[in-house]
Specification:
This protein is of the alpha/beta class. The chain has ten helices and nine strands.
């Protein structure tokens, strides 16, 4: 499965609810190659009991469930979690059947069918570096619910020169904190994932890189998709959505193609650590 250009959306100010929908309908699918690469490498299947941290609107869980895995997910965004329930719950099923919980790993009880055999934390892709300790604490708590030696997958941006979205994300950093030096801003450091794993008491055990291009049907879809990530929330609070949108469009202009589509090649890196 590869990311596809998404359908057109009208440009308009977005509420938190519509941003959650934009994430589910526009942006989340850009990460499909990452999910596939991880699941293929770890041979996710019927014997897998997966806990997804920051599961969002549930696409990564849905893909694991399609491989036969038993899935459980947590997320702090209730709007995204409702969309995950729509995806994962059959009609008429009780809500707890999908094992989706609002919050972090503390919201998950010990599994009755045995400890988790895989933990995924794709959320650090879009989380500020200042939250590293909170992420480490969440990973440590989740690891307590996993089997000894179970893999824990962390994900982050690849080298800045291989991530076309860097320019757009630099806009978010500059508008959120005008005193920062944009030239020094980077999506991810070389050892960020390893340092996070070690801080959480995990043992790094291999890594990989995956191409995850961002493709949008038009500029309006690109703006809505990127705003839905949460990476621009601080910038919107510091200025306003109109200003963020204006500067985001300027940053995206080099990636606008003659047919009106927006295309940004990116590389993401994932780390496999062990409990």
């Amino acid at each position: 499965m590869t990311p596809t250009l998404v359908r057109r959306h009208r440009p308009s100010p977005t509420s938190p609810a519509s941003r959650a929908r934009d994430w589910a309908e526009i942006q989340e699918r850009m990460l499909v190659p990452l999910y596939e690469a991880v699941y293929e490498r770890l041979e996710v299947g019927p014997d897998t009991r997966l806990l997804g941290l920051g599961c969002g609107s549930g696409l990564s869980l849905l893909m694991a469930a399609a491989r036969g895995a038993t899935v459980c997910g947590v997320d702090h965004d209730g709007r995204r979690l409702e969309l995950a329930r729509e995806r994962l719950l059959p009609d008429g099923a009780p809500e707890d059947d999908a094992r989706l919980h609002l919050g972090g790993p503390e919201a998950v009880q010990e599994p009755t069918d045995g400890p988790f055999t895989l933990i995924t934390a794709f959320e650090p892709l879009l989380t500020a570096a200042g939250d590293a300790q909170a992420l480490a604490d969440a990973l440590s708590l989740a690891a307590d619910k996993a089997a000894q030696g179970a893999p824990v997958v962390l994900a982050g941006w690849g080298p800045q020169e291989r991530c076309a979205a860097s320019g757009a994300l630099r806009v978010a950093a500059r508008l959120a904190d005008p005193m920062c030096a944009p030239a020094r801003w980077r999506p991810s450091g070389r050892d960020d994932l390893e340092n996070l794993a070690l801080r959480a008491g995990l043992t790094p055990d291999g890594s990989g890189r995956v191409s995850c291009p961002y493709g949008y049907a038009d500029m309006a879809s690109a703006v809505r998709g990127l705003l839905s990530t949460g990476a621009f929330d601080a910038a919107v609070r510091a200025t306003d959505e109109e200003q963020v949108t204006k500067e985001l469009i300027e940053a995206l202009h080099p990636h606008l193609r003659r047919d009106g589509t927006v295309w940004m090649p990116n590389v993401f890196r994932y780390l496999i650590a062990r409990v």
